[in-house]
Amino acid sequence: MSLEVKHISKKFGEHTAVEDLSFEIAKPSVFALLGTNGAGKTTSIRMILGMLSKDTGEVLWNGAPMKPAQENVGYLAEDRGLYPKYNVLDQMYFFASLKGIKKPEAKAQIDYWFGRLEIDEYRMKNAEQLSKGNQQKVQLAAALIGDPKLLVLDEPLSGLDPVNADLFKSVIREEMAKEKFIIMSSHQMNIIEEFCDDLVIMNRGKTVLSGSLNAIKRQRGRENLLVKAEADFMDLAAECKLQLKENTPNGVCFHVDNDEQPKIFLQKMLANGISPIKFELREPTLNEIFIEKVDESNEN
Amino acid sequence: MRIKGWKQILSFTYLQTLKSKAFKAGTIIICVLIVLVCAAINILPAVFSDSDGGIFGDDGEQPEAQNVNTLYVYTENELDFQLSPIQNTAFENITKEQLETKLNEITSGDKAEMLLTVTGGRDKSYSLSFYRPENEEILSPGAAEEFSYEVTDNFTKALYLSIGVSEEDLPLAMADVSSNVMVYGGESEIQRIVGQLLPMAVSIIFYMFIMLYSQSIAQSIATEKSSRVIELLITSCRPLAIIVGKIAGTLLICITQTAIFGVVGAAAFMLTAPFGVMNAVNSGAVGEIAEAAGEAAANTDIMGEISTAVPGLFDPLSIFAIIITVILGFLFFALLAGLVGAGVSRLEDLANALQPLVLVAVAGFMLSYIPPAMNFDGGMDGIITFSYFFPISSPFALPSAILMGKIDGLQTLLAIVFLALMVFLAALLTAKVYEIIILHTGNTLKLTHMIKLARKHG
Q1: Which of A45, A253, B95, B106 places its Cα 20 to 30 Å from the Cα of B140?
Q2: In this predicted model, what pLDDT tens digit does every residue of B110-134 receive, in sequence order?
């Protein structure tokens, strides 16, 4: 199984929403679609799921053109939606029936997911009577019903409290363990780093970075130096031409240009009797890469 | 074109609408109104005729004429015949001098007495005037009136006998003769009234049904868009399946509700019949009603007139054609309403967006009943024929025309085929446009924009 997105583009009038987006998910994994607001993530997802027609390009599922209405696809939309006046259980049966699931099987799956997501007590309530978080859980259950092979989660954790965010994460891990193809879009970079193997970063419809997250990080090298000490070391850092990135209670972060800079800096600190509490050389975070790439794209 | 999932949408739309409070409340309220109207049709005529002394009283019996103890009779000219006596009523002739005193006595008196003045005669027509007591408790107006009929009847019989009519020929001489002025091959009065009222009534009923349910489709689609459920739905089925399922589900709701109203109406009419006018009809009082109203209704075949005025009412093929027309009309407006619903992003924009469609439907509705109602000299014939074929008016115009036999079989068939063709074209437009605009957000889309989109996407 594989999902291939080949050169898809979409224009709305004169505005280019997505331009020549390509990527491939060759094996079951979590793929991240990142971008600023209005970058074209949701439009891309809608094209992949066949909700929107493509101006160019194609989407292949197992080598054949993707037909989401005929495939078993789970989708958690960014704009959550349930029928406000209808009871939750009826809606779940309805969504299951649209996926071709018979009632007894649907019942078993609804029971499982409602229990797993801790919303069993709300099944007979109308959607409008539920909190936003619980509505989100119902929609995740609706996306997961039918055990879809391809799962598209648009901002799955936005608006959730830490406890429910953890619950959602555990469900996503459970789906990963079942070898699902998952496309995830999020602004929470730590979540993406936690789950994703490959990614695309979009800005104004264009792809500004794509590839394996680990490869991207390796390519960038360990360019961040985080230092924390009792004594003042800022003059020594300046002598070593370290570029200050940020100063936080957790320590001072510098950008290093080469491998020698941190060694020389550490030697000077020790020579001046300054013992570091923290001296950590690390790869750039996804957040840093994201901001940097988007800024570069905007400058161009 | 595959439209997998439409049955599930139909089933969900149907069941959820049946469960909704709005449907339950609306159906119950209309059922109560139907029961009240049916009961009123049966009971009110009986109640009102009872209250004024009774065209027919309890159990259809007349008030007793012999409640009048004495009838004082004043004749302007001497009669050539004697009035037949009436049981338990004494007849007493009075002179011109006694007249005013006796009138005052009777008017303000406390006895069940009446006074009759007979004027005319001697080669002139007779005029009979009856005077009763002012106090209705002594003699009710109804009883006095009944008594006056009996005396008048006796008077007429005596008059005929005096001029040589035999006893055997008397019923024939006294039989009512009804008259009706009309053009040969033209309409009677009943046919004319039915012809004016029926198109309006049928148009109003079908207009209300078609527009009510079409707008509910638009609202349902707009709700799905504004609540974003649509995004979840179209991962499992094509947008076209959604609109097809929704229209079919709403049509089923319409049929269910109509059936409920029909059953409730029939049951209410049958259950209240024993208490009202049907009982009177069964007891033979209908002739008396007509007589009291001064009409020759007993000799008039009203049902025959109605069946002549509304021939389609009793013809299964015509009823079938009407049902097909109404369903096609519903589909035509429902498809357009569905597009309107898909073109708005916010529920609050829907009323404004629906206005053009409502205006179009109102124009069709007006076209369906104003020309037939004003077609006194046949000058509207062309417009009326046009209204049978024009898709915005034909769903409202055709049913009444079929009912009244104003349109022949071939024209009916052509009009239905043409309407079906328009529905097909509307469905094609919907199929192309709906999938494109269903995820549209922002300003409400105009029809011209939708058509451009349809052209752009082939």
Answers
A1: B95
A2: 888 999 998 887 677 889 999 999 8
For residues A231 and A263, the answer to whether their CB atoms sit within 8 Å is no
Greater model confidence, A278 or A259: A278
Distances (CA, A) of A30 to A7, B231, B264, B295, B397: 20, 22, 60, 89, 61
Burial class (CB in 10 A: 0-12, 13-18, 19+), A177: exposed
Q: Which domain holds residue A195?
A: 3-217
Q: What is the pLDDT of residues B137-147, one digit of tens each?
A: 888 888 888 88
Q: Which of A81, A90, A180, A164 is nearest to A126 (CA)?
A: A90
With bands split at pLDDT 50, 70 and 90, how would you rate the model's confidence at B302?
Answer: low
The nearest CA of chain A is from the CA of B295 a distance in Å of: 58
A45, A184 contact by CB (below 8 A): no
In this model, does residue B434 exceed pLDDT 90?
A: no
Asked if residue B48 is part of any domain, the answer here is: no
- B439: nearest CB among A46, A94, A98: A46
- List, in order, residues 6 or more apart from B267 with CB less than 8 Å away: none
Question: Which amino acid, residue B145?
Answer: E
ipTM for the assembly: 0.79
Looking at the complex, report in whole angstroms how far the Cα of residue A40 sits from the nearest Cα belonging to chain B: 15
Q: Do A51 and B4 touch (CB under 8 A)?
A: no
Q: Which domain holds residue B359?
A: 6-34+187-456
In this structure, are A208 and A239 located in the same domain?
Answer: no
Q: Report how far residue A180's alpha carbon sits from residue A28's, in angstroms, rounded to the nearest whole number.
A: 5
Q: For the whole prediction, is pTM greater than 0.90?
A: no
State both tokens at A53: 């027609």
Which chain B residue is nearest to residue A102, measuring alpha carbons? B8
User: Is A300 a domain residue?
Assistant: no
Tokens of A56: 């160019």
Helix (H/G/I), strand (E/B), else coil: B363: helix
B227/A82 CB distance under 8 A: yes
Does A73 touch chain B if contact means CB atoms closer than 8 Å? yes
Q: Please classify residue A123 by burial: count the beta carbons closer than 10 Å to its beta carbon, then call 0-12 exposed, 13-18 middle and 19+ buried.
A: middle
